């Protein structure tokens, strides 16, 4: 109880609370700044300098400009498909790879692990990757976005370490009951790794949702563009057309940028609170150790 603590302890705890509160405010304010700016009056926003502690008037003109873009509904659907397919492939491949590398007795396990870790520091480069994707017939298809990045090396290592922490006795008991590797993975390992799986799922889903560069390189059909690429085009269009717009429209440039950010990040912000509770447990269970 705080009442039973000495004055020195109370001062220390109070200082910790103040510092933690300030750090939380520093993390929260950029999001509030973007939100307030996106619903502010465009003229007042252009005239304002410094931080924004509340909306400067009220206007939804930025959202109207962004949402009236005919490409937004199609790109939203494309992104949902890319996230669903891509994250499913990510989780499947990472789980299978982590299970194989975490078990004892597999041939060339150390060599394969070394080769996988090597890819964290070196890769073929953009042009060889593009030529490879095109040669495999994946250019301008969903597979060009989800297959090349099917496994994140870091996430694979975290998952592998998590599986290694599971007692071997559970695996041996399952084998005595006649279970094979797939049954052991599904019935023993995955239920004991829910927290880590939730963190991996969120990491992969956020990466897929935020990705735009690969789509810009590998997709040529605008009907297949993801949301982030359309958002990027809107930002560029409003940033480079200042000389051709009248003064009234120019005031909308800043508010459109902020509205674009909100539209593209709201789905992720809605998911985070439900998965946050798994962060500490999941990352600690999969922490890298010898």
TrEMBL record:
- Please report the record's description of how this protein sits within the membrane: Multi-pass membrane protein
Where found, per UniProt?
A: Cell membrane
InterPro entries documented for this protein:
MetI-like (IPR000515), MetI-like_sf (IPR035906)
A GO BP entry is:
transmembrane transport
Question: Where is the major localization of this protein?
Answer: membrane
Give the signal peptide, or none: none
Which residue ranges does UniProt annotate as crossing the membrane?
A: 12-32, 80-101, 113-136, 142-163, 184-206, 255-275
Spell out the protein name for this chain: Carbohydrate ABC transporter permease
Organism encoding this protein: Eisenbergiella massiliensis
């Amino acid at each position: 109880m705080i009442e039973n603590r000495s004055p020195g302890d109370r001062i220390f705890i109070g200082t910790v609370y103040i510092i933690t509160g300030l750090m939380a405010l520093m993390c929260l304010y950029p999001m509030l700044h973007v939100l307030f700016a996106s619903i502010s009056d465009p003229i007042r926003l252009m005239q304002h300098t410094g931080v924004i502690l509340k909306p400067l008037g009220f206007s939804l003109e930025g959202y109207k400009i962004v949402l009236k873009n005919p490409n937004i509904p199609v790109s939203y659907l494309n992104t949902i498909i890319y996230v669903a397919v891509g994250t499913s492939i990510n989780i499947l491949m990472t789980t299978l790879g982590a299970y194989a590398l975490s078990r004892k007795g597999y041939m060339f396990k150390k060599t394969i692990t070394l080769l996988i870790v090597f890819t964290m520091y070196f890769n073929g480069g953009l042009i060889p990757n593009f030529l490879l994707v095109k040669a495999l017939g994946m250019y301008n298809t969903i597979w060009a976005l989800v297959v090349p990045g099917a496994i994140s090396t870091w996430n694979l290592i975290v998952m592998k370490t998590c599986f290694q922490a599971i007692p071997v006795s559970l695996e041996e008991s399952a084998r005595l009951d006649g279970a094979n590797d797939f049954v052991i993975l599904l019935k023993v390992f995955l239920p004991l790794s829910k927290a880590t799986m939730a963190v991996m799922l969120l990491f992969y889903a956020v990466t897929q949702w935020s990705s735009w560069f690969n789509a810009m390189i590998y997709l040529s059909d605008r009907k297949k563009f993801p949301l982030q690429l359309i958002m990027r085009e809107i930002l560029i269009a409003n940033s480079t057309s200042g000389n051709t717009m009248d003064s009234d429209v120019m005031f909308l440039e800043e508010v459109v940028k902020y509205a674009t950010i909100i539209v593209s990040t709201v789905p992720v912000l809605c998911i985070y609170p439900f998965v946050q509770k798994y962060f500490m447990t999941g990352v600690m269970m999969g922490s890298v150790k010898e």
